[in-house]
Amino acid sequence: MSSSAFAPFCSKRVCDIQTIHRDLCVLDAFKGSGLDLVIGLPNGMVKDLSNNPDHALTWVKDNVQSYLPSTHIVGIAVGNEVLGGGDLDLQTSLFPAIKNIYNATQKLNLDSIVQITTAHSQAVFGTSYPPSSCVFKQDVSQNMKKLLELFSQMGSPFCLNAYPFLAYMGSPDQIDINYALFNPTQGIYDEKTDLHYDNMLDAQIDAAYAALEDAGFGKMEVVVTETGWASHGDANEEAATLDNARTYNYNLRKRLAKRKGTPRRPKSMLKAYIFALFNENSKPGPTSERNFGLYKPDGSITYDIGFPALKSSSSVSSLLSIKEIGAQSWHWSYISVLSSCASMLFLFLRL
């Protein structure tokens, strides 16, 4: 795969792409592309690097330093949705792993170039309705506070995977689907803050801000590192339709184009990553898990969200070689897109 595979994005004035991937062939493909990359460190490596600072230093040398500056690596994402998961050893290993990676970037004088993050699911929160009531769960608060202190020191954001689709699927009788899809609706009112929410994603983000404020980190930015809607599902996943997926992502694109924040943080422009660029035909679980992509595996577009760069083409099909590489082991990738109108639109490709 060569950098020409990204021509459909660059030709439409899409100027930034971030990918989380540690396969050497993929990193080579981005050389000279002028696109930003974030390299992912998978959950399976977290425990080892938490106990071995030398391994962390070697990892950063091999996967980051050796590709600079021709490959524009701007970040490292350590693990994904670790806190709130079922592996307690992994949870306690996350902080020392991130600390070791950070120390490695300092030793290599990369800490001012490469930002370190980790993404959280909503499993780290207690009740999040209304948004102002949200706090971190007691069983994750100790590990979370250490992470937040380190991220505050590093200047890193709080990364959140937020899915109105999953929230709606969990309580379809209690949630208006139009509220989840950004469609016109009366929304909800938070009496404590006197704030109105006309869509669920804003409410989920402000719930995270409330939890951060409760923990003493109210100045930290929230970045949505995954959000999307499944275009197909099983019989019991009635909301997973092509029309709903198109509606959600199209409306999300319009929401991001406004360059505004949330009701709780109106001056902080929302940044969000759409999950995903490609459908994942080999992914286990319910049918919806395999149908979040804007593209099908053959390179044809699943549905149009009105973004000029997202069109079916042979060049896009050549990106599928990434999936062939990624099928050999666990990888995940972000694709971020900055449109010509300067609105922020981010795409997420998980491998």
From TrEMBL:
Keyword set includes Hydrolase: yes
Any single Pfam family the record assigns to this protein: Glyco_hydro_17
Keywords from the named record: Glycosidase, Hydrolase, Signal
Gene Ontology molecular function: glucan endo-1,3-beta-D-glucosidase activity
E.C. no: 3.2.1.39
Catalytic activity: Hydrolysis of (1->3)-beta-D-glucosidic linkages in (1->3)-beta-D-glucans
One of the GO biological process terms: carbohydrate metabolic process
Keyword Ion transport attributed: no
Family the entry assigns: Belongs to the glycosyl hydrolase 17 family.
Record protein name field: glucan endo-1,3-beta-D-glucosidase
